[in-house]
Task: structure prediction
Amino acid sequence: MTSLALVIDPSNDPAEEVDFAERLRQIAVEASPRLFAVLSEHTDRDGVSLVAWGMEFADHVEAVSSDGSHRMSLRSVERVRFMYADPEAITHFVWFDAFVAEVTE
Result:
């Protein structure tokens, strides 16, 4: 986990504030979890449903069902796949890394 000690500088130099804001952004980006969606594909491709949302951190994964009724903290994405597996469907993961990069640049 990345930690940050905040030091208040009474000089309020705008250039330092911009530099500090950029350092904060870099820390947040480096520590940000990977966002993903879990979807189930049933017998036909029209039968796809959103099952859960998740965030993959460096040391664990958080997942919440799409209806908000179940929340889990797990060791890996594979555990999420296992927990949301449906023997009558194919489980898909959609990762949002590329979408986030487009938005922030």
Notes: The first strand starts at residue 34 and ends at 41. The radius of gyration is 19 Å. Residues 34-104 form one domain. The beta strands are 34-41, 48-56, 61-65, 71-74, 90-95.
